[in-house]
Amino acid sequence: MTLEEKVISIIMEQLDVTREECVPEALFIDDLGADSLDLVELIMEMEETFDVQIADNELEKIRTIKDVFDFLKSRGTVWHE
Amino acid sequence: MKRRVVITGVGAVTPLGNSVAETWEGICRGKSGIGRLTRFDCAAYETRIAGELKGFDPLQYVNKKELRRLDDFIIYALAGAEMALADAGLTLGAAEAERTGVSIGSAIGGLATIEKEKEAIFLGGPRKMSAFTIPAALANLAAGHVSIRFGAKGPIGCSVTACSSGACAIGDAVRLIAEGHADCMIAGGVEAAVTPLSVAGFNAMRALSKHNDEPEKASRPFDRDRDGFVIGEGCGIVILEALPRALDRGARISAELAGYGNTSDAFHMAAPPPGHEGAVRCMKVALQDAGMEAAEIDYINAHGTSTPLNDAYETEAIKAVFGEHARRLAVSSTKSMTGHLLGAAGGIETIFCTKAIDTGMLPPTINLDHPDPACDLDYVPHHARKTAIRTAMSNTFGFGGVNAVLILRKFEE
Description:
- The structure holds two protein chains of two kinds.
- Chain A is mostly helical.
- In chain A, about 50% of the residues lie in helices and about 0% in strands.
- In chain A, helix 1 runs antiparallel to helix 2.
- Chain A starts with a helix and ends in a 7-residue tail after the last helix.
- By secondary structure, chain B is of the alpha/beta class.
- Chain B has two domains: about 5-250, Peroxisomal Thiolase, Chain A, domain 1; about 260-410, Thiolase/Chalcone synthase (Peroxisomal Thiolase, Chain A, domain 1).
- The longest helix of chain B has 17 residues, at about 70-90.
- Chain B is globular.
- The interface between A and B is small, with 8 and 10 residues.
């Protein structure tokens, strides 16, 4: 599983959305039905899975699925499964 | 001029069934909803029995995302409210929204969530806390989520009065409608507290039955061999409406909620005083509120927890209020079948009184094999009894010296 696929599988489980809905441009709040608490919970799951820390000011900038990919790559995160 | 308040719908999930129909059928057949405790590994606990919901499917009422974010007590309340509103034939449009409120009591709210998240901090530190912990734990979130789901924008409340929480929530709702602050209230009680802390805590107080070998016989109110209550979980919701509105929309009226009394013992944090003076006053206050004489009461759904103290003192209190009439009326404890649902007890027991009036069937007190000599009233032993009744009184008493009494009456225009 690639890094992107792992991120999407977490989003699908946490937000109860389908694979088809998880396009990179999808907005968490407007497209995937997440509220502010959903987002906090989602990011916590990402932090734990990929062993990263996302500061509150960085969290503000995460609006789409692609934003999550970009953030993880900027931290040099790799994923092997 | 206070408005009359009537019950137009009921909904419940209990250890006897996941609907009022299923539960009431069990009540009429004298079935027990008590069994082995399965909610957690209780091998090391003194009490290993409980009244648990059976085959309840939360996904009938919430989606997978909500399932992870809501404590069970919130889910039970959503289920009860949905069924009650359907029973009442009510959908809240924009016109009714601001005049419809929610009053759902719970003694402890999301206790399982609190226990689980405390463990998460202990094992992994504070950053392991779910963002949903606090909204899942707060007791008023049952009322909150019901308000959100069904669009009720009127008054909102959550009475937290231990084992009277559900009754007080209903009583408060009645007053809100009577005084004109709302035209409709979704009211009742909910509890999902069959958890390690709860069972260990009640065991430490010596409050729970330890009749683990025969779960169905453990809850035996008024019986000589009673040894404590059996903890249960569930929800009971009634739809209350102002009489003019109920008549206007042609609602089916099951009963009138005629009176409510609420008093304090001012005696001890957990035990009633001999003779239960606070309860005596409370029954009288409720009768006065209903504009009724004691002799008009046909049936009492007792608090009847199956503890050594309550059942004897409650009997004494009933005699003090009703005098000779205490020998003519019927008293029964449905806790003999459902167990003690704590904050939800007042909710489901108001529903049992409603059904008793509506169907002319008195719930039994099961397991009454050898009545305590101090308990010598007609407790409708073993079998439900077909008897048309006009009035019913529901007693609930909670830790802290709380007494709450509701009086229901067959609706007559």
